[in-house]
Amino acid sequence: MTETRKTLILGSGPAGYTAAIYAARANLEPVLLTGSQPGGQLTITTDVENYPGFPKGIMGPEMMDMFREQAARFGTEIKDVMGTSVDLSQRPFTVTTETDEVFKTETLIISTGASAIYLGLENETKLQGRGVSACATCDGFFFKNKNVYVVGGGDTACEEATFLTKYASKVTMVVRRNEMRASKIMRERAISNPKVEVLWEHNVTDVLDVSAGKVTGLEVTHSTTGVKQQVEADGLFLAVGHKPNTGLFKGVLDMDDVGYLKTVPGKTATNIPGVFAAGDCQDSIYRQAVTAAGTGCMAAIEAERFLEDQ
Ligand code: NDP
Description:
The protein is α/β, with parallel strands linked by helices. Helices cover 24% and strands 27% of the residues. It contains 7 helices and 19 strands. It has helices at residues 14-25, 60-73, 122-126, 136-139, 155-164, 184-191, 289-309, and strands at 4-10, 31-33, 47-48, 58-59, 77-79, 83-87, 93-97, 102-110, 114-116, 132-133, 147-151, 170-174, 196-199, 202-208, 217-222, 228-232, 235-238, 242-244, 275-277. The strands form 5 sheets. Strands 1, 2, 5, 6, 7, 8 and 19 form a 7-stranded mixed sheet that branches. Strands 10-17-11-12-13 form a 5-stranded parallel sheet, covered by helices on one side. Strand 14 (202-208) and strand 15 form a beta hairpin. The two termini are 22 Å apart. It binds NADPH dihydro-nicotinamide-adenine-dinucleotide phosphate. NADPH dihydro-nicotinamide-adenine-dinucleotide phosphate (NDP) binds at residues 119, 151-157, 159, 176-177, 181, 203, 239-241, 284.
């Protein structure tokens, strides 16, 4: 017989580890499955300067090691595996891993995060953290007086472009059509900024220059004519959308059109009692480490109260 756990946490970003710290200290003896990228999105960033408590900043991977250590210190059982299927039709819930290990759990905290969508260019991957970023809030500060490009024409792209003007000397938005998807207000705010230019009907088709070890330029291609040109650039910000990692729960948990899990307003409870969602998998607005940690804390407290009420 598989032992039934009180709480199982899926995901190991700030939300998952914070849920683990709170759940472990509440004697819920949590087990946490890290997923395929232990530490989550912060492990692919460099300096984290906006997480309170680190006045000199901290490297993302180091911070996540500390989160993990703190979760383990209170007895969280951390497993470096991916949960690959769930059965939430009855309690205890069942979670099966990629190694076919089966867990039964009274409560489930989902903190599987979200992944920025990239363009899929080879050099884009190689230059991540060396001029290529998908988070202006995280990395904009490193582009003081630089010439940066933002790909996308949605609200995020406009928001990121506007935000980047605080630092960069010039921000060029690369928009693949001759209009933007973004709301009028966001679009106008970005376009009216004197530092922002728009390169309409273009796609970024290559990032230069891997041999320099950092972004020095881009190849951009006209969407209809296919005419290519090279432009100088110090940075490339992707804002072509984020994808919440919620595929496991499709058809089972309520989610919006994009896939963000829906929770009761002001809480982390999902539509299935005993299942809670925290962090970027349920947050399309803030997507910050500190807000993810906050909702992770909420989820653990709600799980504890749920178990008490049973
Ligand atoms: P969206 O899906 O709204 O926009 C994505 C943008 O990226 C579109 O302009 C799209 O172009 C473009 N794009 C997609 N794939 C590619 C590609 N391969 N190459 C080039 N361009 C590409 O995503 P957002 O992240 O902007 O927004 C997500 C949701 O969050 C939206 O509902 C938005 O309103 C909301 N949001 C709200 C904010 C606010 O109100 N403060 C701030 C940020 C987001 P195309 O239009 O041609 O498809």
